[in-house]
Design brief:
The chain is built from eleven helices and nine strands. By secondary structure, it is of the alpha/beta class. The strands form two sheets. A seven-stranded mixed beta sheet has the order 4-3-2-5-1-8-9. About 11% of the residues have low confidence. GO terms for molecular function: cysteine-type deubiquitinase activity.
Length: 310
């Protein structure tokens, strides 16, 4: 990805990893590799966030120093800036020093505890990833405060995401036709809708589970049957293969007493209103962070010195 970025024109000096596509390298390694690939003679360093959320500056000679005490804080036209996914979603910190008088040649961008003033002609690359909702996408892009007035963006979509963006467009696009900003925005909105529907199904399942436990507790208080209480409260640790892979409609099985309760009827009404279907798969799905969803596997090969070499 970094090799493609350095070949883009106009030059990209800011990388916003909104889609969490860079996982093999940490922030320091990304800054180091990007600086190695960048051949522009006027680029002297790279800015990134360290492990302690401190903004650091990596120079071409390999030395690292704090951004706050560096002379580069006022010379960002001579630096590359890399922000990982976590820092593209940070709010403006009250510790940020916002000057009363802003240089017209620079624009203040959001940060985590430090004020970055990027040149007006800065171009940023924004990565796209799976399950990237509009709010998160826009928040990451708005790090470039002067969009439309000097700042510009270019979007980087991996091969598994680009076809989905094409499919979400209102007009049928061929494989050779490029997508535009409106297409990317439409795709992020559709991703947001899918996340809302998925969250709605999880909410409904949790509501049904709560009603089941509440009714089990009420029954226990009246009849004292501890076995029935355990059946109502405990969740199965495993599912039989017939339930997982058998021929079934896949709909979630809920007790009739739960469905016929006032709260159960209200949950069912809202599911029908928003056209959400709750399936058995909801109970085995877990919400994951983007880094876990793109977990990188590494396999170590250890050579046995006692074996003969070929």
């Amino acid at each position: 990805m970094l090799r493609k970025i350095v070949k883009l024109g106009p030059k990209v000096r800011v990388l916003l990893d909104v889609g969490a596509q860079i996982l093999e390298l940490d922030n320091y390694e990304v800054a180091r590799e990007w600086l190695k690939l960048e051949e522009s003679f006027h680029i002297h360093s790279a800015v990134f966030f360290g492990r302690d959320d401190e903004l650091l500056v990596l120079k071409r000679d390999g030395k690292t120093e704090s951004f706050v005490s560096s002379n580069l804080s006022k010379q960002l036209d001579q630096a590359l800036v890399y922000l990982d996914e976590a820092h593209t979603q940070s709010e403006i910190s009250p510790q940020c020093v916002i000057p009363h008088r802003i240089d017209p040649n620079f624009a203040t961008t959001w940060c985590s505890g430090t004020d970055l003033k990027l040149p007006v002609d800065t171009r940023a690359a924004v990565t796209l990833g799976p399950n990237l909702a509009k709010d998160k996408f826009v928040q990451g892009c708005m790090g470039m405060r002067k969009l439309g007035n000097g700042h510009s963006l270019v979007f980087l979509a991996p091969p598994d995401i680009y076809p989905h963006i094409q499919q979400e467009t209102s007009t049928e696009k061929s494989k050779t036709e490029s997508v535009g900003v409106s297409d990317v925005l439409l795709w992020t909105m559709q991703e947001g809708f899918r996340q809302i529907q998925h969250g709605f199904a999880i909410w409904a399942d949790q509501g049904f589970q709560y009603l089941k436990r509440s009714q089990g507790w009420d029954n226990f208080r009246s009849d004292g049957d501890i076995g029935a209480l355990g059946s109502a409260i405990q969740e199965p640790e495993s599912r039989p293969l017939l339930e997982m892979y058998g021929v079934d409609d896949g709909s979630l099985k809920v007790d009739h007493c739960v469905l016929n309760s006032p709260n159960g009827k209200e949950i069912t009404r809202q599911l029908i209103e928003f056209n959400v279907i709750v399936t058995n798969s909801v109970r085995v799905q877990e919400e994951q962070e983007r880094e876990v969803d793109h977990e990188v596997e590494k396999e170590r090969n250890i050579d046995d010195p006692n074996l003969p070499r070929r």
